[in-house]
Amino acid sequence: MRTKIKICGITNIEDALAASKLDIDYIGLIFISESPRCVSITTAEKICKNIVKNKVGVFMNQSYDDIAKILKSINLDVLQFHGKEDKEFCLQFNKPFFKTIGVNDNSIEFYDESIEKFIIDTSVDGISGGTGKTFDWSLLESSRKLSNILKNKDYLVAGGLNIDNIKTLLTKYNPAGLDLSSGLEYNIGKKDINLMERFVNIVRRHDKSSYE
Q: Measured between alpha carbons, how far is 121 from 100 in angstroms, rounded to an integer?
């Protein structure tokens, strides 16, 4: 199985171009104003015009009009919803989308089983994503609720992934996909090209060994 990789929190054209040369599947652009990795509209336009990889726009509890306005000027391939958006809201934009499921030590957030694509991310104080913290990966198997969600679904595991812990996740749980941001940075919003390359190489070596 080839593991899907999404490098998120891209804020500049240089990092976007560097990431696009790697064997990854998605580049994530965050349009949440509260996020320190929020990308400007001008930069996002430039990235989308110059990058062939699938561009994912990340939103959280924003209005239909606000998102539609962004989509008029920026050609995003996939949308990602991190808030309390329901399936009907997500479908209005006529684009493929991921919906985040927040996981913490006590609970798994509400979800809609009919949604086909998920991001499984760490939830801290009710906020999913951007925490740089991992969740208990054993829940991918031990939680009947979560394992039922993921059965025959397209999903990415997120939350605190980096070159030091990714081998453990891959070896023990072999997730369908990975989504990371802060684990590849030298400063907030600035990607370390060497870390990106090393991370992708680790994942692809795992993929190759799993075929053998």
A: 7
